[in-house]
Design goal:
It is a single chain. It is built from 3 helices and 8 strands. Helix content is 21%, strand content 40%. With 161 residues, the chain is an alpha/beta fold. It is globular and about 45 Å long. The chain has a 5-stranded mixed β-sheet, sandwiched between helices. Strands 3-2-7 form a 3-stranded antiparallel β-sheet, with no helix packed on it. The two termini are 25 Å apart.
């Protein structure tokens, strides 16, 4: 996945050392009760639609942008499902801590398709027939599907999930 100018400039200064990034993820549901996932081009894993926020961007704007950029689907945000920090080390050795705000969203337009270089495939999945998902993705999805639940956050000392 191509890095933004912002990330390239930071990496030029700190190399592969830890950088903290604000990120967003979308749990996108359609009227059939299916969830929108994409198969990532960097590791071929199925995942939620997600990405880094741009400098000066609000989280809600970032999640709308990411979903449309990656899948050509327009969404309406239903609620903030949670906020969680997690560490990632990419195959190139770059070390990051993501502070992820994940949102439950409803599809309101567009046709799901691969819309950029970040995805190998984009598809709707029934909740009882999901592809293999990593534990982190599965936990965000589960939390977002809880009806009328407050947003998740790790309590002090909990460490997240």
């Amino acid at each position: 996945m191509p890095a933004s100018d912002y990330v390239r400039n930071l990496r030029a200064r700190v190399g592969q050392e830890l950088i903290m990034f604000p990120t967003v993820a979308a749990i996108v549901l359609n009227d059939r009760g299916e969830v929108l996932l994409h198969q990532r081009s960097d590791n071929a894993e199925w995942n939620l639609i997600a990405g880094l926020m741009d400098p000066g961007e609000q989280p809600a704007d970032a999640v709308l942008r990411e979903v449309e950029e990656e899948t050509a689907v327009q969404v309406k945000i239903e609620r903030l499902a949670g906020v969680v920090a997690h560490e990632v080390t990419y195959v190139n050795g770059d070390h990051c801590q993501m502070v992820n705000m994940f949102f439950r969203c409803r599809a309101v337009g567009g046709e799901a398709r691969v819309n950029d270089s970040e995805s190998l495939e984009v598809a709707w999945f029934p909740l009882d027939a999901l592809p293999e998902l990593n534990q982190f993705t599965h936990r965000m999805l589960t939390l977002a599907l809880e009806e009328d639940a407050p947003p998740y956050f790790a309590t002090p000392g909990e460490g997240g999930f």
